[in-house]
Specification:
The complex is a heterotetramer.
Chain A (H helix, E strand, L loop, with lengths): L22 H36 L1 H9 L3 H27 L2 H31 L16 H38 L8 H25 L6
Helix pairs in contact in A: 1-5, 1-6, 2-5, 3-4, 3-6, 4-5, 5-6
Chain B lengths: L14 H33 L16 H29 L7 E8 L2 E6 L4 E3 L1 E5 L4 E7 L4 E5 L4 E5 L5 E5 L5 E7 L12 E6 L1 H10 L6 H11 L24 E3 L5 E3 L2 H9 L22 H13 L7
Parallel strand pairs in B: 1-5, 4-10
Antiparallel strand pairs in B: 1-2, 2-3, 5-8, 6-7, 6-9, 9-10, 11-12
Chain D lengths: L6 H22 L6 H21 L7 H25 L9
Helix pairs in contact in D: 1-2
Classes of the chains: A mainly alpha, B alpha+beta, C mainly alpha, D mainly alpha.
The complex binds heme-A (2 copies), dinuclear copper ion and copper (II) ion (CU).
């Protein structure tokens, strides 16, 4: 193991893996790796967006009516929560790059807290959907009888899209916990901030997905 | 051993020669390029075989002229094939107006055919020679596919909508009918025959069939039994739109947009009335999905098609 | 011939640690490649065994050997195993894993831990799918068409789907690893246009893995949601569109056929160059053809749906684009042929496989043109013509290239040479067995014999018997390399660093290479396949 | 060391994102016909672009990163465009 940096002894793991020449190469590789992974994610959600677009084109009325039954306030609040968490994440990256460890920990905790709030609100919304029998399947019931069949498609997509998004949030919380440990024990330094930056990329991506989900799911034909 | 083993399918429709011509052209093309490449590589492998253990090949960089040639020539060839294939396909997807209509319902694992005259058959389809036949097809469960190799036609049969193919038989005889889309356990047993007859024989066959009444008249019965006529009446005061003269017309929809009334539109109006609502009406019509069978739907459609403007009161 | 006896190098990746743990926890790309080799070989023989049963059943027109349900499970598992667990990972995860770092002068892939993880994910996915086979099997065809898979099939769709979903991530991670490695880990001086074509083709294939696989993953999620929670997204009775499933499925699965062929083409470029001792004619055109195939390959998926109820106009667009994607393949074939002109061509086994590939891929690819021509595809789609088309490319093409590559790099992997005579006999048997198996299927297809048929009209029997006879020859052919390659591991002649007198960074290090690949980090000052300037000093 | 984005930029972007959210919600209640969807999606695209450029530092990143971002969106475009080449033309009649 070649480890030339001076403060190597303090760290629980060597920052430079053996097969890289230097930290810059390692960082470049890791960053590119995350971006390529995010490209994968774009296409992953892209499949859902394609399905959504087809059915929304087919059943505009049913999609509008079903969308009305979602709680726009909770949706909007959640959007704000997630955007704020993106801000705290960006600030955490800033703190890592400038080597401010206390701030870094603080912002990571804030990001996680906001993420948890988002999931909490989502859970409240899901519970309401269950109570209203808006979950697709045998017990599905929709108030406007004539639109019921196609509203069910909307809710199917709603649950798959928000469910997969929530799953990404949960994974994000896991990553953030890990980063918190590294921030805490000093693995993250000014020189070795890239783990935080890369986790940040992931977090922001999940935010972007929501930025699209919110208008697509909550805001159809509200004026009507 | 080879007697009774065909190497080429019979050609029994007007479409068959057109498809076969394209096929033979492609066989020729494939033979030409495969033999060209094949003999070149074998010839080079022999001619330029390594003669000393440390011999090295000649240094040749490659040339733009050659590269452009063997990019452009295949490009021109394939564009030709594209146009050819597309024109055959267009002919296949455009049934002649005077085609004889037959409805097809596929289900695991059998074929049901309904002639307009009301004659029904299972796994056998009788048609007259020399007359275009249009099949309007749907499925009761999963995707199937009607395939008659002798006619060179094939199309998937999809639940929830209508697809169609057409053919004009050119010779009498019995031809294989296969289900060509995998549909479960007895997919390979979902086979039947198309029986092409002389027109007069066909007339006799129709007359001999035990028709329960034409499709449209069966539909009229259903229309009363399901109480459609409580809302749809030949006068404008009904709760639903007047259906007389509807078929083929362009209707305006609630919330903008228009739609041409064809078989698929009527089908949708019955199984999913909420999807497209005619202008000036509330979506009060209940869905008949699960209440009317696919066969029943076809009868209703034929009935609605048979309602002429003149029947209005 | 060297006068002194050649010995294995004292220290190499195979003797750097012994015992199960040193293998199962290895981060060394070369060892992971061998782990993949083991897994993939197992899956190949499982899938091949299903093929044997298929061909046995089809020897008679009546469905007499197995029941119809069993037959449906046989061809489904045959397709699933061989596509997802053999052909897609095959060349990239075995040869690519071994060679990408070596060819670009790197110590390892960019993410060695992820590389190991992807092997585990692969094995877990495979286990899941095998579990599905045991608990009821899968009878949907490898294409999982809805609503049959979601509403009708009573077989183990969900476990199999989960298995494939999991395996998808292994594929994504491998592709990601390659892309980052090729961008970031090249040796000094190794510019893009000095890269071996093997690297270009793996780069192109990786793009497809990364951009295509997620779509099929999410499609599988939707199928599972339909099946488990009865969501009805693809159920026409509840407003869903089964054709949408086909769009999403083929958005991945068409490009996936290029995941299967591009790495094979990369292998062929290496083989042709090495056994002609000559640079590849039109290097840049071949390199860009790989990228062209990867990009255009994403635009043609609808050609699997010409009769599936998509719009006539979409069919025309997809037909047009399908013809375009044939052009870069044609360019490659012509360039390989031109490379042979005035080469110094040896008849070693890998070259026999390369020649077999070029011929069979040409036939398979040209029959693809039949299918891209819409009006003709209507007649042949879902018949044995399709079956013949893709076996010509996948078995006649990719497997030929895989075997050729395995033979070519075998001395590098193991440090030893196999028995050349046995290898040549094997190659010839495989070639003849293959053609006897699949050529009759073209005729059967045009006659109208539908695929996935457990029983068929008696007039098709003669051709089917020929095909079954070919398959047994082919099966024997595949066993031969197993035997002599295994034998060579112990008794094969020890070879030096460069037994073929080939160029390329992988031949400059010892055989087998040390764990860190190169004693000294290489610096590249030459182009790929730079024969006249480089071959001096090689032990021939 | 790579470019460190000043905090003020983050706050500015944050404000823009919040404003964007407010505007989308507000616009949803105004009847613009088919344009409602267009407006909502345009705002979403703008918001996403801001996040990508500033929060995710793409504005300050290498050409390769740009290429990956552009590439992924382009591929998504392929998926949507060719899928809709089917759905939008299904009702067209074949001419003749
Ligand atoms: C590795 C796998 C692989 C590869 C590389 C290809 C390559 C091609 N395939 Fe194939 N294909 C499959 C695997 C593959 N295919 C499979 C598995 C299926 C069936 C799936 C299922 O339903 O289960 C299928 C099905 C399939 C269909 C759908 C048929 C149907 O279901 O109705 C079509 C239609 O267009 C098609 C076309 C093509 C074309 C045009 C190419 C081209 O890329 C070929 C290009 C190559 C050449 C053209 C040869 C070299 C050229 C020359 C020697 C020069 C002369 C050239 C010219 C004049 C142009 N393929
Ligand atoms: C990568 C891909 C791959 C490979 C390598 C093969 C290899 C072979 N395939 Fe397969 N095939 C597919 C991919 C592949 N196939 C796919 C995707 C389908 C479509 C599935 C679907 O419709 O869903 C298909 C379908 C398919 C069919 C059509 C089934 C049908 O539609 O009803 C047939 C029929 O002949 C067939 C035959 C063969 C044969 C004879 C081989 C031979 O090359 C196999 C040779 C190998 C061996 C013979 C193994 C050797 C091992 C032994 C001899 C061990 C001892 C064995 C026993 C004890 C039994 N395949
Ligand atoms: Cu019906 Cu196959
Ligand atoms: Cu394809």
């Amino acid at each position: 193991m070649s480890d030339t940096t001076a403060e190597a002894g303090r760290r629980p793991r060597p920052a430079l893996a053996h097969h890289f020449d230097d930290l810059a190469q390692q960082k470049d590789a890791a960053t590119l790796g995350m971006w390529v992974f995010l490209a994968t994610e774009v296409l992953f959600f892209g499949g859902l967006f394609a399905a959504y677009s087809v059915y929304r084109g087919w059943y505009p009325e049913a999609f509008g009516a079903a969308s009305h039954s979602l709680d726009i306030t909770l949706g909007a609040v959640n959007t704000a929560v997630l955007i704020t968490s993106s801000l705290t994440m960006a600030l955490a990256v800033h703190a890592a790059e400038t080597g401010e460890r206390r701030l870094l920990v603080l912002f990571l905790v804030a990001t996680m807290a906001l993420g948890a709030v988002f999931l909490g609100i989502k859970a409240v919304e899901y519970a309401a959907k269950f109570a209203e029998h808006h979950v697709p399947g045998p017990s599905f019931h929709f108030e406007e009888e004539a639109l019921s069949r196609n509203a069910q498609i909307f809710f199917s997509l709603y649950f798959v899209m928000t469910g997969l998004h929530a799953l990404h949030m949960v994974i994000g919380l896991g990553i953030m916990t890990w980063m918190l440990v590294w921030a805490w024990n000093g693995t993250i330094t000014k020189e070795y901030a890239s783990p935080i930056e890369i986790s940040g990329l992931y977090w922001h991506f999940v935010d972007i997905v929501w930025i699209f989900l919110f208008p697509l799911l909550y805001l159809i034909g509200r004026h009507a | 051993m080879w007697s009774g083993t065909p190497l080429f399918p019979v050609s029994a429709s007007t479409m068959a020669p057109r498809v076969d011509a394209l096929y033979f052209f492609l066989v020729g093309l494939t033979a030409f390029f495969s033999l060209l490449i094949g003999s070149l590589i074998v010839y080079y492998a022999v001619r330029f075989r390594r003669r000393a253990p440390d011999a090295i090949g000649a240094r040749i960089e490659g040339g733009a002229v050659l590269e452009i040639t063997w990019t452009v020539v295949p490009l021109v060839i394939v564009m030709g094939i594209f146009v050819w294939g597309a024109s055959v396909f267009f002919a296949m997807s455009r049934p002649p107006d005077d085609a004889l209509n037959v409805y097809v319902v596929g289900k695991q694992w059998m074929w049901k055919f309904q002639h307009l005259s009301g004659v029904r058959e299972i796994n056998e389809l009788h048609v007259p020679v020399g007359r275009p036949v249009k099949l309007v097809m749907t499925s009761e469960d999963v995707i199937h596919d009607v395939f008659v190799p002798g006619f060179r036609v094939k199309a998937d049969v999809i639940p929830g909508r209508y697809t169609q193919i057409w053919f004009e038989p050119t010779r009498t005889g019995r031809y294989h009918l296969f289900c060509a889309e995998y549909c479960g356990t007895r997919h390979s047993g979902m086979v039947g025959e198309v029986i092409v007859m002389e027109p007069d024989e066909f007339q006799a066959w129709v007359a001999g069939g035990r028709a329960e009444g034409s499709l449209a008249s069966e539909g009229a019965k259903l229309f009363r039994d399901l109480a459609c006529n409580t809302c749809h009446r030949p006068v404008a005061q009904g709760r639903g739109p007047v259906l007389e003269g509807l078929f083929g017309r362009t209707v305006t929809l609630e919330g903008g947009g228009t739609a041409v009334v064809d078989e698929a539109y009527i089908r949708e109006a019955i199984v999913d009335p909420g999807a497209r609502v005619a202008q000036g009406f509330r979506p009060v019509m209940p869905t008949y999905q699960g209440i009317v069978t696919e066969d029943g739907l076809l009868q209703l459609i034929e009935y609605v098609k048979s309602l002429r403007d003149e029947d209005r009161r | 011939m060297p006068s002194h006896p050649v010995l294995l190098p004292p220290r190499h990746y195979l003797n750097d640690g012994f015992g199960v743990k040193s293998w199962l926890l290895t981060r060394d790309h070369k060892r992971i490649a061998l782990l993949y080799l083991a897994a993939v070989t197992v899956f190949f023989f499982i899938g091949g065994a299903f093929a044997v049963l298929i061909r046995l059943e089809l020897a008679t027109p009546a469905g007499d050997l197995v029941t119809d349900d069993t037959y449906n499970k046989l061809f489904t598992m045959h397709g699933v195993m061989l596509v997802f667990f053999f052909l897609i990972p095959g060349i990239p995860a075995v040869l690519g894993n071994f060679l990408v770092p070596l060819m670009i002068g790197a110590k390892d892939l960019a993410f060695p831990k992820i590389n190991l993880a992807s092997w585990y994910i692969f094995v877990i996915g495979g286990t899941f799918t095998m579990y599905a086979v045991v608990t009821g099997g899968l009878d949907t065809g490898w294409t999982f068409y809805t609503p049959f898979s979601t509403m009708s099939s009573t077989s183990a769709v969900v476990p199999a789907a989960i298995g494939i979903f999991i395996t998808g991530f292994s594929s994504i991670l491998t592709g990601l690893n390659f892309i980052v490695t090729i961008h970031r880990m090249r040796a000094p001086g190794l510019t893009w246009f000095r890269l071996p074509l093997f690297i270009w083709s793996h780069y192109a294939a990786s793009l497809i893995m990364v951009l295509g696989t997620p779509v099929v993953a999410v499609t599988i999620v939707l199928v599972a949601a339909d099946r488990i929670f009865s969501f009805g997204i693809f159920d026409p009775n509840r407003g869903g569109d089964p054709v949408l499933f086909q769009h999403l499925f083929w958005f991945y699965s068409h490009p996936a056929v290029y995941i299967m062929i591009l790495p094979a083409m990369g292998v062929i470029s290496e083989l042709v160059a090495a056994f002609c001792r000559k640079q590849i004619f039109g290097y840049t055109f071949v390199a860009f053809a790989s990228l062209g195939i990867a990009v255009l390959g994403f635009l043609v998926w609808g050609h699997h749906m010409f009769v599936a109820g998509q719009s006539v106009y979409a069919a025309l667009i997809f037909s047009f684009l399908s013809f375009l994607v044939a052009i870069p393949s044609a360019v490659k074939v012509f360039n390989w042929t031109a490379t042979m002109y005035k080469g110094s061509i040896s008849w070693d086994t890998p070259m026999l496989y390369a020649i077999g590939f070029i011929g069979l891929f040409t036939v398979g690819g040209l029959t693809g043109l039949f299918l891209a021509a819409v009006g003709l595809d209507v007649h042949v789609t879902d018949t044995y013509f399709i079956v013949a088309h893709f076996h010509y490319i996948m078995v006649g093409g990719t497997i030929m290239a895989y075997l050729g590559g395995l033979h070519y790099w075998w001395p590098k992997i193991s440090g030893r040479m196999y028995n050349e005579l046995a290898a040549k006999v094997g190659a010839v048997i495989i070639f003849f067995g293959f053609n006897l198996t699949f050529f009759p299927q073209f005729i059967l297809g045009y006659l109208g014999m539908p695929r996935r048929y457990h029983a068929y009209p008696p007039e098709f029997q003669v051709l089917n018997v020929l095909s079954s006879a070919g398959a047994s020859i082919l099966g024997v052919g595949y066993l031969i390399p197993m035997v002599y390659l295994a034998w060579s591991l112990r008794y094969g002649k020890i070879v030096g660093a460069n037994p073929w007198g080939a160029v390329g960074l992988e031949w400059t290090t010892t055989s087998p290479p040390p764990t860190e690949n190169f004693a000294e980090a290489p610096v590249v000052t030459w182009d790929a396949y730079d024969y006249p300037t480089q071959v001096e000093g090689h032990v021939v | 060391m790579s470019h460190i984005v000043p905090k003020s930029v983050y706050y500015l972007i944050f404000a823009a994102l919040m404003a964007g959210t407010a505007v989308t919600v507000a616009m949803a209640f105004v009847d613009l016909g088919a344009f409602n969807a267009v407006v909502a999606l345009t705002i979403a695209v703008v918001k996403a672009t801001l996040v990508v450029l500033f929060f995710m530092h793409v504005r300050y990143s290498s050409r390769l990163t740009w290429a990956v971002v552009f590439g992924s969106v382009f591929w998504l475009g392929i998926l949507l465009a060719l899928t809709f080449s089917d759905y939008l033309t299904r009702s067209w009649r074949t001419f003749g």
